[in-house]
Amino acid sequence: MKQIFACFIAILCAATFVACDEQQPQNPTTTVLELDEQLISIKPGESKTLTLTTIPVSSEPVTWSSSNEKIATVFYGKINALSEGTAVITATVGSESVSCIVNVELTEYELVWSEEFEGTELDLNTWNIETGGNGWGNQEKQYYTGRNENLRVADGKLYIEARKEKYENNEYTSARITTKNKADFAYGRIEASIKLAPGKGTWPAFWMLGYGSWPYCGEIDIMEYVGAYPTRILHAVHTTNGNGNNGRNWSRTYFQDNILDGFHTFAIEWEKDLSNGDDCIRFYVDNQITAVLWQQNATTEQAEWPFTKNFFIILNVALGGNLGGEIDDTIFNNPVIMEVDYVRVYQRK
């Protein structure tokens, strides 16, 4: 009898276990997350808000994150675009996540300023004529004047002519003009169409300076040409920490066989927050990239990267000096002239 009762109890327990097992709850339904957009194209400075849907509706908090906060940040679904590049915006609820790819693209350039050199005189509302013959910090040999012999506008072009002649205790003359305090720019595409002044000893240049004492102000040499090296173009920048006096300035060279044939376009594209928050200066000859300089770690220390403020434009033809070298006077058997067709500045829309 005891054995029968024990078997009955065992059968009852087994049945109970089976029943309990059958009544165990199934795995809860997985939460599905959906964003209203999976791919966004946006411009620096713009914002966009993503909408997250949870299925089923969940009261759990949403965590938002960006794969690269130097390109785009996100706060409660609102994306702020900072610089060119791609970032992945992710929304997380519990153990589930969903993402949207954000492409931050630069706007197009538009013309904001130009000098076409129309008329018969230099526009003194735009340009300053600098004069003097003190070597200009580089042991240069010329005296800069504003005379028509050295500086003139005609036929839609600017002419800067270097001459072999005695003038104010100097053996040579030339010209130099700037837009200081009249037209200055931070960032953009700055370009000029120039026919270079040839000959050993010439040193024509198209460049920019910031405000203040050199080298603290910063310098961008868009184009420097040394006549002793007839196929070479130089690009350079000077800062407090890296300049020609301490020998640590950044520079690059570019060679082009036909550089003395007619007009060529020299330009920079000076970009703000181009990648990971870093600025960039790209150098061009005839629309071909010839050098690139990057800001490092987005530092804005003036001594290291002064290129966050307005700079003005300079055009000149120097003779001799530290870079121009020895002057061959026979070059003056023919006119030594730099011609400038135009100077133009474009900035992002």
Keywords:
single chain, 349 residues, mainly beta, Immunoglobulin-like, Jelly Rolls, 2 domains, 8-stranded antiparallel sheet, 2 helices, elongated, disordered N terminus
**How is the main sheet built?**
10 strands, mixed
What is the H/E order? HEEEEEEEEEEEEEEEEEEEEEEEEEEHE
Question: What's the level 1 CATH class of the largest domain?
Answer: Mainly Beta
Could you report the average pLDDT, rounded to the nearest whole number?
Answer: 92
Description:
By secondary structure, the chain is mainly beta. It folds into 2 domains: 32-104, Sandwich (Immunoglobulin-like); 109-348, Jelly Rolls (Sandwich). Helices cover 7% and strands 48% of the residues. It has 2 helices and 27 strands. It has helices at 2-22, 321-324, and strands at 32-35, 39-42, 47-49, 52-55, 63-66, 72-75, 78-81, 85-93, 96-104, 109-115, 128-130, 142-144, 151-154, 157-167, 170-174, 176-178, 184-185, 188-195, 202-209, 219-225, 232-238, 250-255, 264-275, 278-285, 288-294, 311-319, 336-348. The strands form 5 sheets. Strands 10, 12, 13, 14, 15, 18, 23, 24, 25 and 27 form a 10-stranded mixed beta sheet that branches. A hairpin with a 6-residue loop joins strand 20 and strand 21. The longest helix is centred in the first third of the chain and has 21 residues, at 2-22. The model is unreliable at 1-22 (pLDDT under 50).
